[in-house]
Specification:
mainly alpha, AhpD-like, 7 helices, 0% strand, extended
Length: 151
């Protein structure tokens, strides 16, 4: 989405802008995703979200739409977002992607999710058992330093 398109959207009244945005989304996806439909009465949130998402995922030409959907499927799988995953599978099917291609994206998402779990877990284990740590920063959750306590 270029700046002229953004200006045109922002010059419209809220109701018209939301209606046109959701119509465009429906034309592109074949449906309006739940979260966008939920936000339709909140134009101050919906309009910038869709413009941002559109600028990232839909308006550049370096990746094909099919590739973008496969990435979305892999990420939704890794994040365990059932609703997003199902919607992107439907979109991928409408784009002509095969069950096998979609499954490959799910497998890749699963492998990366597994690697993330193992990375976090083994680093915590190594830090606590061997005193090895990649960081001395404080934890934002428990406000403790990442250092080995002596007992």
């Amino acid at each position: 989405m270029d700046l002229d398109d953004i200006k045109k959207i922002l010059e419209k009244d809220e109701e018209t802008a939301v209606s046109e945005i959701l119509s465009t989304v429906k034309n592109r996806y074949g449906e309006v995703p739940y979260i966008l439909d939920f936000m339709k009465d909140m134009p101050e949130l919906l309009i910038p979200k869709v413009m941002y998402d559109n600028s990232i995922m839909r308006e550049f030409e370096r990746l094909e739409p099919e590739t973008i959907e496969l990435i979305c499927i892999g990420v939704a799988s890794a994040l365990r977002c059932d609703h997003c995953l199902k919607m992107h599978i439907r979109v991928a099917r409408r784009l002509g992607l095969s069950k096998e291609q979609i499954f490959d994206a799910i497998l890749i998402g699963g492998a990366l999710s597994n690697a993330s779990v193992l990375s976090v877990g083994t680093r915590a284990l190594d830090s606590e058992i061997n005193g090895n740590s990649d960081s001395t920063e404080e934890c934002d959750v428990c406000n403790l330093n990442n250092r080995k306590e002596t007992v």
